[in-house]
Amino acid sequence: MVTINVLGQLEVIAGGRDLAPTAPRVKAVLALLALNANRVVGTDTLFAELWDDRPPRSAATTLQTYVYQLRRILDSIPQGDRRCDIVTKAPGYVLRTGETDAERFLTVAEQGRCLWRQGHVAEAAERLRQALGLWRGHALADINLGPELTIHKAHLCELRLRMLELRIQADARLGRHQDLIPELRSLVAEHRLNERLHAQLIDSLRAVGCRAEALRAYQDLRRVLKSELGLEPAPDVQRLQAEVLNGVHGGSVTALLRTG
């Protein structure tokens, strides 16, 4: 069976081999079709991705050539393993395939979010961990992104971050603060302006009795926000800092930490 993956470098896995094309624009066409699997992608959308607002006169013929190259790759897969093809359907093309890793991520992430809302915290944490485990790096990592794929990537990356925040919140609810601290330190270094992650780090440090470190974490956030945006931390984070200063233990996690 063919598996098409976009949550990392583009992969077309069949029979244990990666058959992904190497030509940059052919890869872009496949990625856009995969991100819209089993739905029609119009030729105008593909033109916009490949050439922005300056398609050449030969755009239609060139696109047909790219699709032909992709069909040749899929046709090289034994019929019993294929279950994947590209069909012409007005006003463009459809990649008919099973679930891609992006679709699987969306499905499993939604399952995790539903479990969280239902109060099944441990199950939610595990399901969200499974969803996040589908990522092999940055989405579409080896593709030259045009405007359409840029939008898709931004959406996937934003959802990944939200699900990561929710998984961390679930782990915190389960009392796994000590294990979370190293991960959160790394995340706040990567997402310096994300107040939710900073707040969770402060809360986890407080939970394990590291008041001084929690206060330093707050001051680190305050410096970053002040220097880069000219802002103070959100009121919820300021209240969290006040709880730390006043020695409040086991206080409720602030509204800023709630997600899902």
Summarize this structure as a short list of keywords or feature phrases:
transcription regulation, DNA-binding, Arc Repressor Mutant, subunit A, three-stranded antiparallel sheet, OmpR/PhoB-type_DNA-bd, mainly alpha, Serine Threonine Protein Phosphatase 5, Tetratricopeptide repeat, 260 residues, elongated
Characterize the structure shown.
With 260 residues, the protein is mainly alpha-helical. It is 60% helix and 8% strand. The chain has 11 helices and 6 strands. The protein has helices spanning 24-35, 43-51, 59-75, 79-82, 101-117, 121-132, 147-173, 177-190, 195-207, 211-229, 235-245; strands spanning 3-5, 11-14, 17-18, 40-42, 85-89, 92-96. The strands form 2 sheets. The protein has a 3-stranded antiparallel sheet, with no helix packed on it. Strand 5 (85-89) and strand 6 (92-96) form a beta hairpin. It starts with a strand and ends in a 15-residue tail after the last helix.
